[in-house]
Amino acid sequence: MLWSAFMLGFLGSLHCVGMCGPIALMLPVSRTNEGLKFFQILLYNVGRILTYMLIGFLFGLLGESIASFGFQQHLSIVIGSIMLLSVLIPQKFLSQFKISQPFYRAITKLKAQLGASFKKKSLDTFFSIGFLNGFLPCGLVYMAVFGSIATGDVLNGAFYMALFGLGTLPMMTFVIYLKSFTQNIIKFNLKKLIPYAVAIIGILFILRGMGLGIPYVSPKPASSKIEANLECH
Predict the structure, then answer these.
(1) CA dihedral 75, 78, 80, 84 (to 10 degrees)
(2) Which residues are CB-neighbours of 81 under 8 A, at least 6 positions away?
(3) Average pLDDT score, the chain
(4) Are 79 and 203 within 8 A, CB to CB?
């Protein structure tokens, strides 16, 4: 299921352009040295992906704790169901609960630090901007976080988020080089495909949790395989 992270990041990168594109466009990249410009953009994306990996590590730890009680299959079904519900339930209904409101103060401080970083032009600045950018609230990142929990493993959780970040890399790099094309990308109708991608991944997580014995998609739980082997002997 790790490959689903790259798929989510790649298909959802148009959403990333809409949310984080303005930040990427404001990067104080070199306008005279293309080699330096590429390295600056690389540092920005490395910082962003490193943040995703850190988040994946922490939530992978949560998933591992749950899995240690033997609930990994159930966890996969729950995570998949949450992904499906996030697509099916109207956003206007979800916004009434103001789930992210307690985090507004932290977000305000984060934006202030981002603003201060844009005033600098040292190489470490690009890494810092990317690192801070990764912590900004984003619905697509939340979906990837749910996926990292469902892996039920610390390292796989970090790897899941790294693959998600790599999936967003082409578009987030492309947008900086072609600024004049950015506005058209942001308005592009392919953004409508994102809910379908989330729904497909949600269904895959549910199938994996059901353990139907379908190779790669819904393999049987390890416990079932052990019992089957014992019966054969």
Answers:
(1) -170
(2) 202, 206
(3) 80
(4) no
What distance in Å separates the CA atoms of residue 22 and residue 179, rounded to the nearest whole number?
A: 10
Furthest-apart CA pair in the chain: how many Å? 72
Q: Could you report the per-residue pLDDT of 117-172, keeping only the tens digit for each?
A: 777 778 889 999 999 988 887 878 888 999 999 888 999 999 999 999 999 998 88
Domain ranges of the chain: 3-232
pTM of the predicted model, to two decimals?
A: 0.78
- For residues 93-120, give the mean pLDDT: 67
Residue whose tokens read 């790099």: 173
Contacts 24+ apart (CB under 8 A), 210-214: 210/73, 210/77, 211/73
Pair of tokens at residue 98: 């103001």
Kindly report the CA angle at 231 between 228 and 233, in degrees rounded to 5?
Answer: 115
pLDDT digits (tens, 9 = 90+) for 184-198: 555 555 567 778 888
Report which residue type is found at 70: G
Tell me how far the alpha carbon of residue 90 is from its chain's centroid: 21
- Please report how the helices 3-11 and 194-210 are oriented relative to each other, as an axis angle in degrees rounded to 10: 170
Which of 105, 109, 207, 100 lies closest to 150 in space, CA to CA? 207
Confidence class of residue 182 from pLDDT cuts 50, 70 and 90? low
Distance CA 84, CA 80 (A): 6
Burial class of residue 149 (count of CB atoms within 10 Å of its CB; 0-12, 13-18, 19+):
buried
φ, ψ dihedrals at 71, nearest 5°: -110, 20
CA-nearest of 54, 34, 183 to 130 is 54
